[in-house]
Predict the structure.
Amino acid sequence: MASSSSSPEKGKEKANGKSSDDVAKHKVKKDGLGWIEWFMGWFYLAYEMLFQRIVASNLQNPMPLPPINDLTFIVTGSTSGIGKEIARQLAEAGGHVVMAVRNPKAANDLIKKWQEDWSGRGLPLNIEVMELDLLSLDSVVRFAEAWNARLGPLHALINNAGIFSIGEPQKFSKDGYEEHMQVNHLAPALLSILLLPSLIRSSPSRIVNVNSIMHNLGFVDPEDMNVTSGKRKFTSMVGYSNSKLAQIMFSSVLNKRLPTEAGINVVCVSPGIVHTNVARDLPKIVQAAYHLIPYFIFSPEEGSRSTLFAATDPQLVDYCESLKAEDWPVCAFLNHDCRPANPSEEAHNVETAYRVWEKTLELVGLPSDAVERLIEGGEVKCKYGSSESHHSQ
């Protein structure tokens, strides 16, 4: 098991050694990844596919969890894939789990099955369901308001839900945003900020974002988050990888903005390459390859380990705090083997990260000082979730 002592020194040098030449280079507007960065992104992807099982061979499956009896977890997208495993295992370890899902019926059916399977092994599982549709920012605001109104604890928000619409044409939410960017980045970012009052009340607490090795192939232009300017051709790969990189950049700034006394840490995790429902959207030839190489690809249970570790391991707090104290341009990033890792070169671009931060707050309808206001116990108004669209859960 990794401890917080294994912080990646290479990244610190990168962070601290920003010369004026480097800054000048970043001032020149990049239109995409350089070919070396692009090649390295694909190299990391291939390496992870082939060696993730060997690299993570030190981990037990399922992962043993520390005592979490008094802790409350919100898990988005918890009716399938990794999210389903995360919710079940946290509940079986004694946590109070809130399944934040688009399809409450599917979640309630799962809970019924889990309770029956668990019957006789201890107290009934402490799980409940709340409706949340990440393709609607109104829904995100309603969810957060309903949760905060309870004045109950929240020890970890696990932003697990995500989409990867492989091979499909570009699609936009009713809010007007490219769907990958909204579901994988904008909606979780809005949810994270709106739930800060509950997280502060329960500190030490954490925000865990399920990210992806594919952020290595991402490039975010803060002025073109929807990829509609025509400068770059949209593909589902571009949409997905950009949204995951945007999430890391936003998380880095959020982790920096949260003062130590707030007691909230932000971490992004890579689950590895996992056999989930995404496979059904893959081209037939790739699906065939998926079935040929089950040895290399993690099951959802194996893929859930890094997120469970990030949500429950007590040592993570010290590691996140050490990054906050350093001149460190990225938040904690855990690899599929539960060890600290360095995200992509592009993720270290501090200037772009701050622009992504500002643009994200603008797109989700929050004021630029939303975090500071909430930390001080104030309120923020969001342009979404207006009173006419409010209704109780």
Summary: The first helix runs from residue 9 to 16. Residues 101 and 131 are 5 Å apart (CA to CA). The beta strands are 72-76, 96-101, 127-131, 156-159, 205-210, 264-269, 332-334.
